[in-house]
Amino acid sequence: MSQLRLNALTGRWVAIATDRASRPGDFAPRLEAEPLPRHCPFCPGHEEDTPPALESYGRDGHWLVRVVPNRYPAFEGQGAFEVEQVGPVFQQAPGTGIHEVLIFTPDHDASWADLDDREAGLALAAIRDRLEEHAEHGSIRYTQTIVNHGREAGASLEHPHGQLLGIPFVPEELQAELDTFAAAEALGGPEPCVLCATLDAEIDAGLRVIHADDRVVVVCPFWSATPYEMLVIPRHHEPHLADAAPPDLVSVGRALRDVLASLVGLLGDGAYNVVFHTAPHNSDEPFHWHVHVLPRLTSVAGFEAGTGVLINIVAPEQAAEDLRDAQDLLTERPA
Ligand SMILES: [Zn+2]
Ligand SMILES: [Zn+2]
Ligand SMILES: [Zn+2]
Q: If you measure from the C-alpha of residue 242 to the centroid of ligand 3, how many angstroms do you get, rounded to a whole number?
């Protein structure tokens, strides 16, 4: 089992998960050019290579989306978040939780950008169903859903997939957002939700909007810290992704597909992370669920590592214009 250790300097938790070092990878070490061809455990016909599915969606006996337990979990097992003092500045806790793999297409060579409407909707429905299930576990406070695309973004297997990590504490990044929502609500004002306010302000400004339909808006946010960063905001205010209306989930899945296709059209098939943020399980704190898309075009250097201040070399206004142009080219292209 992995172990959580508290960084006494920053107050942030670190997970030590040495078992994950033994997991197989499609990607050769960084300096070797070509990935080796290998047997893919996520392809149709290889279902026996993964633990039995937790969820499976499809029709006519063929799955389109599958959720399976991760064979090399970073977090595993039941148990309360019991912090133990093991030295004057050493605190640790067992790394309990759930770690699952979301295989969101049977197509080994596809990506989220290639999903059809049905798959894009099913992927979000699968995330919703798993979040509902995770919320039943008393020891899991929060579930982080992610998609890592490309080696530079942390993917170890080529077959497109996401991950759901249910963890026994609320992580710092999410807590920072929760604090902002709480502070905005405490201030009162006509729009107590900071993300509803952002949505309105970005639509008014117009400059950074790359997708807007009646259920979801995608922008390159005013405060973008990395080039071509995107923020997917459902119009309907809802703290928990698991409580979102099915049409909102479907729209977010498709909007994500469309903007990722624009990103690929613009920059080629580069690495990116997709990060789903939703309120902690069973929490009634103010929040508004959303999705971050973080292309990995640059690496974090010393200044960023030392300060947490990221230097973005592409203004979000330019990024949005480039992405809109790429989208136009895609839609003009004959089918
Ligand atoms: Zn595969
Ligand atoms: Zn809101
Ligand atoms: Zn967020």
A: 16
